[in-house]
Automatic annotation (TrEMBL):
This is STAS domain-containing protein. It comes from Paraburkholderia sejongensis. It comes from the Bacteria. Residues 162-273 form the STAS domain. InterPro entries: Bact_StressResp_Reg, RsbRD_N_dom, STAS_dom, STAS_dom_sf. SUPFAM superfamilies: SpoIIaa-like.
């Protein structure tokens, strides 16, 4: 919305800048102190930069319209500040107060300057209200967008962290899944597993679903897609962690896993993987002395 009085407001900002800064910084410091990381000197510097840009925009025309190009630098500064505060854990309201905290001291200066001219005082009060409401809403919108970007990035990082592909032995990979398996996570699982197959040249991968709380038709389809993708890369898959409840659910759903090797535990699946790669497991007599000490209880033999 376009209003009048830009040049007069710029003059008041310039003439009463130190007074405005003192009151604004005091309010902002009370807010920033709860979050930490922003000192009084930094706040004062931000204020001076903000006021300088606002004065430049106001002084360019007596007509005030926050949507015009002359306010581009102000919008850029507020965008940077809002994004920074989103990362620092501020709330949208605390971020918008960067702008709104200036309204009260500015109104007080307007009354001092224009107390005898009611018409002009009303005009500039309306201009200040309209302008600073627009500035505050802009900071809140940028803050919300920045926060959503942070959340999306964190979700992506959590997905990547929650789908580690571990090399158990030469040619054998393990992919332990924990939590719900949805479409987005399946894509990450596939990418991680296929890349690891390429990197290691593995011929068999164990997909462990012990940590998956429930298996429905959609989850089963996701698992089958992952198995099919791994096979296209030359690696067979074994699914472990098939508990009795999950086995019954799969049967009731009519999901066909007949062409996929399934095991109850990861240990059982590892034994199968060793056999499929030409190795065997044998026990060691209790009295045998081995370099690994008492904890070493098996030997791996290559079939070569």
């Amino acid at each position: 919305m376009e209003t009048l009085g830009g040049v007069r407001l710029a003059q008041i900002f310039n003439d009463r800048q130190n007074e405005l800064a003192g009151e604004w910084v005091a309010q902002q410091f009370a807010i920033a102190a709860r979050r930490g990381g922003i000192g009084e000197a930094q706040l004062r510097s931000q204020f001076m930069q903000f006021v300088a840009l606002v004065c430049t925009a106001l002084g360019s025309s007596d007509r005030v319209d926050f949507r015009t190009a002359q306010w581009d630098e102000v919008r850029s500064l507020l965008s940077e500040m809002s994004a920074q505060r989103a990362r620092q854990g501020f709330t949208p309201g605390e971020t918008a107060m960067f702008v709104f905290s200036l309204k009260e001291p500015l109104f007080a200066r307007l009354r001092e300057e224009l107390g005898g001219d009611g018409v002009k005082l009303a005009e500039l009060t309306w201009t200040v209200s309209t302008l600073f409401d627009a500035l505050g809403l802009f900071t809140a919108e940028v803050f919300q967008t920045s926060r959503e970007q942070v959340i999306v990035r964190q979700q992506q990082e959590l997905l990547e962290l929650s789908t580690p592909v571990v090399q158990l032995w030469e040619g054998i990979l393990a992919l332990p899944l924990i939590g719900t398996l949805d479409s987005a996570r399946t894509q990450v699982v596939m990418e991680s597993l296929l890349q690891k197959i390429v990197d290691t040249g593995a011929s068999i991968a164990i997909i462990d679903i012990t940590g998956v709380p429930t298996v429905d038709t959609l989850v089963a389809q996701h698992l089958l897609k992952t198995v099919a993708a791994a096979r296209l890369m030359g690696a067979d898959c074994v699914i472990s962690g098939i508990r009795p409840q999950i086995a019954q659910t799969i049967v009731h759903l009519g999901v066909n896993l007949s062409n996929v090797i399934t095991k109850a535990t990861l240990a059982d699946a590892f034994v199968v993987a060793l056999q499929r790669t030409g190795r065997s497991v044998s026990g060691i007599a209790p009295h045998a002395q081995v370099p690994g000490g008492a904890g070493a209880n098996l030997n791996l033999y290559s079939g070569d």
